[in-house]
Amino acid sequence: MKIGAFKYWYSIAEAAQVAAQKIGEPITSSDIVDKIEYGELDAWFDATGRYAKRVYLASHNEPETKQHRTPGFLASGSQEIEGMMGYYRLYKGPRSGEVRFEPIDDKIAKAAWVDGTLLVDHDEESVLQIVKRKAGVSMDSRNSKDFVICYDEFPRDKIWIASDDLRGLLDDSRPPLEAVADMSATEKNAVYKLLAAMAVKNYEYKPGAKKQAKGVMSSIQDHVKSMGISLSDETIAKYLRDATSQFVKDTNPIQAMAKHLAVGK
Which of 58, 162, 169, 196 has CB 3.0 to 4.6 Å from 244, enough for a Cys bridge? Predict the structure, then answer.
């Protein structure tokens, strides 16, 4: 029976069990969390009963230093806080990257993203930020001024993996791109150069990196899916590695020269 034939949602522990059976090697819950963290697997949060406000990605230029500051999220001060119902996809796009530290003792602190927990609304476009009501505020208030960002760590039993997403991660049965194999070396090299340019310039793909920055692979996969193209994460990663391998900087000049001669002019 294929993944999702009966169950629509899997817990992190269940997803690890299914992955282990499919791949034939030990897979833990932490391995599934890693796939989520690095944007290779979508995850959904059961936010039923939570409060949230709509936020908008914003970034600023610094004319004097000609530097582009890291993006952050802004919200309209006049908006009402929304109540949430159902499952929401965890946001995987760009964020400020800043971390908030709350000391626990003299040796350790609780760390959380300054942006808090971000979710994608059911319209698949709007971004929601989970908030909580300030102490002493009327329980009937929905005024955004009466709420603050919620930095509480949500429990794993509220995180779910959709069967379609899990199947997409584990499905390695799709045939390879036969057209690439039939190309001449010159044609293949030209296609790879185009693919490399788009991946590096449009998605900030880092050639040769052991792990890509969070959100890079998921953005590429989202755009692939939006065009009705069905490719597994592994297939995308393979061809990106192949296409960008010639742009990996070699510390050994002899290896660099050999690679340059191999890929042609």
Answer: 196
